[in-house]
Amino acid sequence: MRILLLIIFPLVSFTQDVAIGYWKDYLAYNQVTDLAVVNEKTYCIAQGGVFYYDNEDNSINRISKINGLTENQAEKISFDEISNTILISYENCNIDLIQDNEVINIPDIKRKEISGLKKINNIYFKNNLAYLSCSFGVVVLDLIKKEIKDTYKIGENGIYLVINQTTIIEEDIYVATNQGLYYSETNNQFLSDYTQWTKDTFFTDSTLINARFINIGVFNDLLISIVDGQKDYLLIKNQSWEKLIDYGFERPELNISTNNIYVTDSNSISIINSNLQENSITSFSNAYTCEEKRENEIWIADKTDGLLKYINGVETERYQVNSPVSNKIYSLEFFSNKLFINHGGHMNFSVNMLNNEGASFYKNLTWKNLDFFDLNRARDIVAVASTDNAEYYASWYNGISKMEDETHIIKYGYQNTGGILDTTFYSNNRIQISDLVIDDNNNLWGLNSQVNKPLFVKKSDDSWFSFSINQNIDGLYFDELLIDNSNYKWGVMHQRGLFVYNDNNTIENSLDDEYKILNTTIGNGNLPSINIRTIEKDIDGEIWIGSDQGIAVIYSPELAFSGYNFDAQQILIQEGEYGQYLLSSEKINCIEIDGANRKWIGTENAGLFLLSEDGTEEVLHFTKENSPIFSNKIIDICINHDNGEVFIGTDLGLMSYRSDATIGEIKQNETFVFPNPVKENYRGNIAINKLVRDARVKITDINGNLVYETIANGGQANWNGMNYNNERVGTGVYLVFSTDENGYEKAVSKILFIK
């Protein structure tokens, strides 16, 4: 059992700057699939994240792994009023209890080795106990002792039997299973023994005895159940089970209050009152469950429309959280002060995902989404590039969509590019664009798969050109594109290495063009593997290569066509008494360069690394075991170089980490200090931003006494508020002096410490 303090983050803080070393989540919160009414708050599960709406101040607040929860794939949530406990179960069967703003983790079921499906289907509370209906039986959790009390295996001969829901009526406990209803006495001390359970056979329709029972509960001292038989029925038990209502359920969910029975099923909610009379609400898009807060007031979890509030059968409120449309990430970009998430993709390049979610972007404190229709029916969006007045979205199916001011302008394909955006050799309507890049002359470059001329460009005058690299086009898939400091174009070829192309700055004239295909042979690339997964150019112009066997660097890419050796080199690091190549056992998914020229490395299974400028030192290593990071599978990384925020895309969603490096300024002007003033209780780092690159920074008191000095990481210096004696500085004003590479020193800022 582990106890953590829960820190509630209101969604307004989502827009605010955070201190160095702090994390933020950027999860999708609008597909609500479960909820729990907790006094004047309504807690929701949405795409694995948790948020709540506060009825008293009308705020929406989010909780996640970043601020106290153990996991980030929440699946079920329920509230026990007696013990004042919120119980959250996760996809992996981990459990968190929230009591008095503390999170208590119960990992027992998660750790338990069970053959077959391991899943928590329902939560039921009674007498300070939580009955967890699982795919293998019933787990009883003591909410006071915060420990597993017992496990009931219901199946004959002790086999696992899927339990869909549990309830207690008077002295009996009932379970709804995939093979009928079972019951026993609650005071039976041997409920872990399957022989102590009896199958309920009291049915007016005997064919239902062995049917799949989805739900069970108690209403007005009578048992209520939903059965999935030849036809779906809502059953009620007096002496025997009788059909109350016939249904054609798609996904029924049973909720029972003092006043009513609620049956939620996708686009409708049936409300049965104490007289067993039925009314229906049928205005939902994709309802999952509901809960009564007070008589005639219900809250609904809808996967399409978010959190809904109904009073007397009429919708009164709809709460949709400002967030991305989805946690699915293929790639990330940050430019023009906008963060982009591309939600498309493919299955190992060869098969389209047919994803219609498009792209989400964050600008001016607001998330917006451009979907399939916004992008003129373009699907599987994998990349975006931006000019001053337009954005270009790359589709792995439909070519390129151009947007201006979030309005579709044109979709580029075969017909309106003179065949430059060619279709794949096997389909006359599929154009697989993998990446787009803008060069210094505002030309749009890109890569097109399974065509004769895969490298293409749209010049700033809207003329189009394409270029061949003489490869068998069957299975010729491309990934990332990079333009180096010599204006050479580097492209990742799926399981074929790299190509480098030189148009000699004469785009219209292909006669002077030259290219090379790089592989694992010495003198022809010396790549660590033919399976290259990512490439990135650092501040010095060196090209960093990520493969399924670690990292390599091309230190002199300008020599690619010189006749001299420019082979990639792996970085040898000391590991104990032996040397080994950097991350050679890891699959590298992405590389990003920060303002201090350090390397952020995202891996398939080992989390996120921050390496020194030359890659020989590990500065940070984040995993889901030692940090709030959602997953060890890092899909992509991008950086806001103005403030050092590192955006980390995982297979479970997006988050960020405020790093201590920014891009250096060309000329020293006005700086930015955060936080300023520094309050007495603040113990994080103080960031001095917008410095020239690698500036030497001195901090003095008002009398000129030196307190601290350091070298900026790129354009940002960091101070922990301590002097050379490792003592917290006192209240007062402190001066910041910056010295550039030419030795010119000037006062650039003041920092106020207050009590």
Descriptive tags:
1 helix; 755 residues; mainly beta; globular; single chain; 1% helix; 49% strand; Immunoglobulin-like
Structure at a glance:
The chain is mainly beta and 755 residues long. Helices cover 1% and strands 49% of the residues.
Helices and strands in order:
Elements: E1 2-5, E2 9-10, E3 23-25, E4 32-38, E5 41-46, E6 49-54, E7 59-63, E8 74-80, E9 85-90, E10 95-99, E11 102-106, H1 108-111, E12 120-126, E13 129-134, E14 137-142, E15 147-152, E16 163-169, E17 172-177, E18 180-185, E19 198-199, E20 212-219, E21 222-228, E22 232-237, E23 241-247, E24 253-256, E25 261-265, E26 268-272, E27 278-281, E28 287-294, E29 297-302, E30 306-311, E31 314-319, E32 331-335, E33 338-342, E34 346-347, E35 351-352, E36 359-363, E37 366-370, E38 381-386, E39 391-395, E40 399-404, E41 407-412, E42 433-438, E43 444-448, E44 455-458, E45 464-467, E46 478-483, E47 489-493, E48 497-502, E49 514-518, E50 532-537, E51 543-547, E52 550-554, E53 569-570, E54 572-575, E55 578-581, E56 588-593, E57 599-603, E58 608-611, E59 618-622, E60 634-640, E61 645-650, E62 653-658, E63 672-674, E64 678-679, E65 686-689, E66 696-701, E67 706-711, E68 717-719, E69 732-739, E70 745-754
Parallel strand pairs: 64-70
Antiparallel strand pairs: 1-11, 2-7, 3-62, 4-5, 5-6, 6-7, 8-9, 9-10, 10-11, 12-13, 13-14, 14-15, 16-17, 17-18, 18-19, 20-21, 21-22, 22-23, 24-25, 25-26, 26-27, 28-29, 29-30, 30-31, 32-33, 33-36, 34-35, 36-37, 38-39, 39-40, 40-41, 42-43, 43-44, 44-45, 46-47, 47-48, 48-49, 50-51, 51-52, 52-53, ...
